[in-house]
Amino acid sequence: MTLQHPIPGSNTDLHRLYQEMRRVRSFEERVGELFVRGQTAGSMLHLSIGEESAAVGVCAAMQPQDTFTTHHRGHGIFLARGADPARMMAEIGGKEAGYCHGKGGSMHIADMGLGHLGANAIVGGGIPTVVGAGLAARHKKTGAVSVAFFGDGATGQGILYESMNMAALWGLPVVFCCINNQYGMGTRIDQATANTRLHERAQAFGLNGETVDGLDVESVAAAARRIVDAARAGKPGFLAVDCYRFYGHARKDKSPYRDAAEEDAGRQKDPVAHARARLIAAGLVTAADLDALDAAIDAEMDATIDFTIAQAEPPLSSMFRDVYDPSEPEPEPVRTRLDRVLARE
Amino acid sequence: MEMTYRDALRQALADAMRDDPDVVIMGEEVGRYGGAYGVTKDLIRDFGPDRVIDTPISEPAIVGAAVGAAMTGLRPVAELMYVDFIGMTMDQLANQAAKIRYMFGGQIGVPMVLRTQGGTGRSAGAQHSQSLEAYVMHTPGLRLAMPATVADAYHLLRQALTKPDPVVFIEHKALYTMKEDVDLSAPALEWGKAAVRRTGDDLVIVTYSRQLHYALDAAKTLSAQGIEATVIDLRTLNPLDFETIRPHVERVGRVMVVSEGAMTCGVAAELAARITEECFDFLHDPVIRVAGEDIPISVSTQLESGSVPGPKLIAETAGRLFA
Ligand SMILES: Cc1ncc(C[n+]2csc(CCOP(=O)(O)OP(=O)(O)O)c2C)c(N)n1
Ligand SMILES: [Mg+2]
Q1: Do A129 and B96 touch (CB under 8 A)?
Q2: Percent helix, strand and coil across chain B, each rounded to 5?
Q3: Spacing, Cα A90 to ligand 1 middle (Å)
Q4: At A191, is the secondary structure helix, strand, or coil?
Q5: Which of A38, A118, A142, A311 is deepest in the core (most CB within 10 A)?
């Protein structure tokens, strides 16, 4: 079975959305496996399992010219946007073949070709980028919307409010998408803020603001379409997608601060399983059809691990590259300077 | 033509905006107010509010939006009213602007300019008088220009607006009204080159920004005492033009580094270390740092001027090297 990557904005039918979410889930499981096998470069890996509908639903509402930034838990978003999972996995593995030649890794992956202006390891760090991208889009009349994806934790950062205020003030084609997985590390959202109806903040600044249940990817896609289309027409928006972080904050976190009953209930909110059940219930596909699709996806994602393991690390000589533009001299290595200084007679 | 440092900066912005439709200015009070120090006066009239953008008082987002705009095709000039506020923007500057090219494997640069001003001289107090260039110089990925002359105010800003990487451009608040007779059409010294402003055989003074003028004053005093100084104006601190410094140090063997920033871990400290390492065999004396005191700046004019180098301290210190 051949897998078709979505052209963003082209198709929101449930089968396609399921396939995309299933790819994210499968990819994230393989990231975990790569880590277990000691093959990831980064010690910091944040999986988006349980949040697939946010990535897939919002990307489905975006158009090819659109741009976006993500937070540190951004694998699913990039994949839903059409990233090559093998190059993604290679980047997570710190390999030369990765999107950023192994210099960025999981938390700093980017691809200008797909409008990915960068993942960010600073909570809230990528949010104002979209304000600038919105200004540029308007100035250059590209028709692009720029979407900032971030977690609920970023609602504690002042820069979100600075950015929303500017976007509303200037009527920019910008969307703020908060993937509310209920936790910032070990702090539940209601332990971090008194008003957990996050979209109200955006409304207070004059943006469109909605919260959507992430269980149902079609609802997310529909809400995203409303918010993104309005932003394109000059009314920026905010969309919170409610979901649950299925596993720990990062790979080694076993979430001792959550009890089992809560986790069990949280994991009931599974957008992949939900879409699957709906597809079958609607008689659109059989379980066997989906099993075959899943197997093909898993095979595709398995191959990313083999690919990554086979790839080379970036050469040591690349260390000084890209600090500045290639037309400028590279910084002098410490060792070169030491050799010169110590060579005096 | 006679013009002020402020007018030269404005001219550079206007010329750049005329030449490049992607240049936009954004910051607090840059439009209708004309800039806290008047640098952007009337630009909104000439270029309109879409290119001279008044922002809310949100420094982190001003810099962050400039980063995003620079990544998507504009060439923004963000204005930070005082360099003292740079701490508020440090994430966007140091974690984003400075590292994006590198983290993303060279896919894209951030061709933005962050214009700001610093230094003492207006009795502006501890939070509006600092010289924080070392914060910037300590961050790989950021270029740093600090013009001392009217001609450099123009040319360095024009050049900064053609650079592929983020440039922090720190003006000195005490220089805005300084006048010089300049011919802006004359060929400019290259970006990244230090200027030898005076040549003498007894002492090398390496400095930048307003301290250049103090060093030149001191050099006159010293000359009257028979001590002839070479005075080097760095112009840009990143790139740092060590190759212009080296032959003078090797020729003369006595060096003072003068900076308004606080002494400890400052620009003068870095230069002293480099000169010592690279030119040790040529030095007759330790490299002397003349820099700001390691204290906050006071609003009292006496305490303010007393806490940073001036012509007197520079000349006296140099004189003691020869006592
Ligand atoms: C400015 C900043 N502060 C703190 C951290 C450490 N940190 C990393 S992720 C995280 C929690 C973020 O929570 P959220 O935004 O909800 O994203 P999630 O991890 O849930 O996807 C924290 C505190 C950081 N990376 N950056
Ligand atoms: Mg969270």
Answers
A1: yes
A2: 40, 20, 40
A3: 24
A4: helix
A5: A118
Ligand 1 atom showing the smallest separation from residue A121 Cα: 25
Q: Is residue A325 part of a domain?
A: no
Determine how many CB atoms are found less than 10 A away from the CB of residue A251: 18
Across the interface, of A136, A158, A166, the residue whose CB is closest to B72 is A136
Task: Find the helix packing angle between A85-92 and A287-310, rounded to 10°.
Answer: 50
Write out the two tokens for B112. 């933005």
DSSP-derived secondary structure letter, B260: E
Fill in the amino acid letter for B300. Answer: S
Backbone φ and ψ for A212, nearest 5 degrees, come out as -130, 145
B104 within 8 A of B159, measured Cβ to Cβ: no
CB-neighbour burial class of residue B116 (10 A; exposed 0-12, middle 13-18, buried 19+):
buried
Told to judge if B284 belongs to the known catalytic residues of this protein, a careful annotator would answer no
Q: What does DSSP say about strands B179-181 and B2-4: parallel, antiparallel, or unpaired?
A: antiparallel
Domain count, chain A: 1
Touching B: A residues 75-134, CB under 8 Å? 98-104, 108, 110-112, 117-118, 120, 122, 125-134
pLDDT attached to residue A40:
74
Chain A nearest-CA residue for B53? A170
Domains of chain B: 2-181 (3.40.50.970), 195-320 (3.40.50.920)
Q: What digits encode the pLDDT tens for the residues A257-289?
A: 999 999 999 999 999 999 999 999 999 899 999
CATH of the domain at A134: 3.40.50.970
What is the C-alpha separation between A122 and A105, in angstroms, rounded? 14
Q: Select the residue of A122, A130, A325 nearest B165 (Cβ to Cβ).
A: A325
Distance in Å from the first CA to the final CA of chain A: 70
Strand spans (E) along B7-55: 23-27, 52-54
Which DSSP state fits B302?
H
Q: What's the farthest any 2 CA atoms get from each other in chain B? A: 61
Q: Which domain holds residue A90?
A: 8-320
- Those residues whose beta carbon sits under 5 angstroms from the ion ligand 2 are A 151-152, 181, 183-184
**SS3 assignment, position A68:** strand
DSSP structure string for B252-311: H--EEEEEEEESTTSHHHHHHHHHHHHHGGG-SSPPEEEEE-SSPPPSSHHHHHHTS--H
Contact B141, A324 (CB under 8 A): yes
pLDDT digits (tens, 9 = 90+) for B272-318: 999 999 999 999 999 999 999 999 999 999 999 999 999 999 999 99
Q: Which is it for strands B113-118 and B75-80: parallel, antiparallel or unpaired?
A: parallel
Model pTM score: 0.96
**Cβ-based contacts of B31 with chain A (< 8 Å):** none
User: Is residue A53 domain-resident?
Assistant: yes
pLDDT tens, N- to C-terminus, chain A (345 residues): 334 444 444 445 999 999 999 999 999 999 988 888 887 777 789 999 999 999 999 999 999 999 999 999 999 999 999 999 999 999 999 999 999 999 999 999 999 999 999 999 999 999 999 999 999 999 999 999 999 999 999 999 999 999 999 999 999 999 999 999 999 999 999 999 999 999 999 999 999 999 999 999 999 999 999 999 999 999 999 999 999 999 999 988 999 999 999 999 999 999 999 999 999 999 989 999 999 999 999 999 999 999 999 999 999 999 999 999 999 999 999 999 999 999 876
Residue A234: CB atoms within 10 A of its CB come to 11
What number of other Cβ atoms are within 10 A of residue A13's Cβ? 12
